[in-house]
Amino acid sequence: MTALSTKHLLGIKDLTPDDINLILDTAESFKEVINRPIKKVPSLRDLTIANLFFENSTRTKLSFELAEKRLSADVINFAASSSSVKKGETLIDTVNNILAMKVDMVVMRHPNPGAAVFLSKHIDAKIVNAGDGAHEHPTQALLDAFSIKQTLGSVKGKKIAIIGDILHSRVALSNIFCLQKLGAEVMVCGPTTLIPKYIESLGVKVENNLRKALEWCDVANMLRIQLERQDIKFFPSLREYTMLFGLNKEILDSLSKKIVVMHPGPINRGVEITSDVADSDQSIILEQVENGVAVRMAVLFLLAGRG
Ligand code: CP
Questions:
Q1: 256 and 274 within one domain
Q2: To pair with 30 at 20 to 30 A between CA atoms, which of 4, 92, 197, 279?
Q3: Does residue 77 sit within a domain?
Q4: Are residues 144 and 275 in the same domain?
Q5: Could you tell me if 223 and 300 lie in one domain?
């Protein structure tokens, strides 16, 4: 198989296991490319890609831009906060104006769930969802799966605990779809108020005790408390959250086996994870960021039909 079954990357839900494996295999080649002295290939030199960010980002925005440049695409960047969106221009009008400048592909982050799907129904260009509200963040899940594969040899059969604010997390949903399609077992762990009721219907285990989740898993993916998406109080205080669900070195060292620690970033040091854990030899947080560039190169390359 050398081509994806989908025109866009809107969510992991739409991908087949073969699609995911093709992306991960292609990313391996690109990881080798970006570690060479000359980190660039001419694969997309005839394409122009627009990065449209309607919500803040550090990793995803820079990683896509670097991936596009490493593939020799022409790149334009759009930040809603400094655009005519502030004057009332709609999403469709904004994107159609950008496409009128002969753009071939759109990478979009948006605060509204479904924004990428909505856009795909109204424009011709290929779309990559770079995170839509609390819905999906497909390239994060792909880079997480790639990082697990690189660290543990495979994803199949591994036990992954996703810990923290599951309710407001697009990373959690995309990871659940991706890891299950690759044959992993998935558990979510957090306060009951931050675990959506539908989650068990996705076939994941639910655990409210951090130690039990950590004893069960091979990999702990620690998620940030997304205070910016919480308009009501879901737990009494950050201090109490940290006491019950924060990962510190004492707990990590007391486990019966050595687990891998992941975090999609941005980290709230001292809340969901302490600095000594984030910076420990069990943490692969910066490997995740490095792998993000290779995985995004693979996604863009395959969506452009260059596989
Ligand atoms: N992991 C992630 O999506 O980080 P940013 O919000 O900084 O892009």
A1: yes
A2: 279
A3: yes
A4: yes
A5: no
When the pLDDT of each residue in the chain is averaged and rounded to a whole number, the result is: 96
Question: Do 116 and 159 have their domain in common?
Answer: no
Residue of the CA atom closest to atom 4 of ligand 1: 59
CATH of the domain at 73: 3.40.50.1370
Does residue 264 have its Cβ closer than 6 Å to ligand 1? yes
Q: What is the DSSP string of the chain?
A: --S-S-SSB--GGG--HHHHHHHHHHHHHHHHHHTSSS----TTTT-EEEEEESS--SHHHHHHHHHHHHTT-EEEEEEGGGSGGGGT--HHHHHHHHHTTT--EEEEEESSTTHHHHHHTT-SSEEEEEEETTTB-HHHHHHHHHHHHHHHS-STT-EEEEES--TT-HHHHHHHHHHHHTT-EEEEES-GGGS-GGGGGGT-EEE--HHHHHHH-SEEEE----GGG-SS-SSS-HHHHHHHH-B-HHHHHHSSSPPEEE--S---BTTTB-HHHHTSTTB-HHHHHHHHHHHHHHHHHHHTT--
Q: How far is the CA of 9 from the centre of ligand 1 (A)?
A: 17
Q: What is the pLDDT of residues 175-209, one digit of tens each?
A: 999 999 999 999 999 999 999 999 999 999 999 99
Cα(56) to centroid of ligand 1, in Å? 8
Q: Do 144 and 278 sit in the same domain of this protein?
A: yes
pTM value surpassing 0.85: yes
Structure confidence at residue 226 as a pLDDT band (50, 70, 90): confident
Active-site residue set: 59-60, 87, 109, 137
Structural domains in the chain (count)? 2
